[in-house]
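Friendly challenge for the regulars: who can give me the structure tokens for this chain first? No prize, just bragging rights.
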Amino acid sequence: MDQTLDEAIYNRYIAPTKRQRTGRVGLEFELPVVNREHAPVDFEVIHKVTDAFLCKFHFQEAGRDDDGFIYAALDGKTVDGLSFDCSYNTLEFSFGTEMDLHTIYGRFSRYYAFVREQLETYGHTLTGMGINPHYEVNRNIPVVSERYRMLYHHLSSYGRYGQEMLFHHYPNFGLFSCASQIQLDVEEKDLVKTLNTFTKLEPLKALIFANSPWKESEELCGRDYFWRNSLHGLNRHNVDMYGLEFESVDEIICYIRSMSLYCVERNGKYVNFRPIPLKEYFSSESIEGEYFDGNQYQTIRFRPELADLQYLRSFKFEDLTFRGTVEFRSVCEQPVKEIMASAAFHAGLMENLHALTEIIEKDHVIYHKGYNASELRRMFVKKELPDDFDWEKVSGLLFVILDTAKDGLVRRGFGEEEFLKPLYRRATKLKSPAKEMLEGLAGGRTLDEYIEEYGRL
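First reply, four minutes later:
Bragging rights claimed.
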């Protein structure tokens, strides 16, 4: 089975990269919905605004929940999507791939302005934060659908695992945690370099992109904490950063083989089970899981099938997908007026990958000081930075990397470098949106002010 599994992994994840990469970009923005009255988001309002959006932009429904409400819609021409990610408290815009980031930004601006204007008529709004600022008052319940019901049930079962790891007690974190994600094409010849280099970049990204402070964590990017200390993190190879430096594509395949499955579908029903590494899963005669029969959960025993590989869910910061892309997943949702900065940053650096790799490999500002990339990420994402580093030099290193991204964007030829401007300001002061907000709140500003500021287009 090992050889057969490796071939299946190769065909699903490596084979799509055996072509010349394009400069096309795919984006996803997850945006918190906020009730301005400090009350829970009114889902009836959400449904009304969704209907108005479909009427205005001629999107076609792509999914209805069990109560008959639309939670996903698609534009058949652009392949742009509007959906509610896990919960009606989170609106997601996804975009069909384009060469020019301005094209995506133009469509995003139209969608966002319309939805926000509609929400405002009902006393609601949208904002650009990595955690919904009203998570404590919202009804944090999943969209009533087969997939989201399974996911919430699975994450809520962490209590069965005793002391196997230090779990947090927020299995509903996906209902109020929001990300800004970008997918970029990658070629097989650059695959190892891409994963290694961008993994080592993660500590520096924490300094300028963190935007999800959490009350029970010292991290400005609480999303790191949520995934790592949830049932998704029971197998560390499914979450966070790569704890090694890849030397070959074969080693990437071995790493994927060590990741765990936790769900499959049988007869139109999601079945979830204890996370099981792929090698163990596919060598098993049968697996015991559970599914919802419409009234309660039932136990089921089923045989693994090689096609089940499609249900592997990775939550790596740099995630190799079946589309021949790397999806960058570590960035919190950003303030809306600066929402394209992360996309421009990654697209420019991917275009200038070899220069970025050389900078990172030669660096002695943060590396070669006794810490690996994962340790540095956890240090740099904290509210209080350690004294182990010369932060003026760290700021200088960020400027070098931003200039490298800018050069890559100039090479792309679309004038996208303008989207990087906010990052130079953040690099100068080493202030992420989260740090800026916390300092403002401590100085007397209100959360409502930041909801408005971070939501302004």
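The radius of gyration is 22 Å. The CA atoms of residues 82 and 93 lie 5 Å apart. Your move, everyone else.
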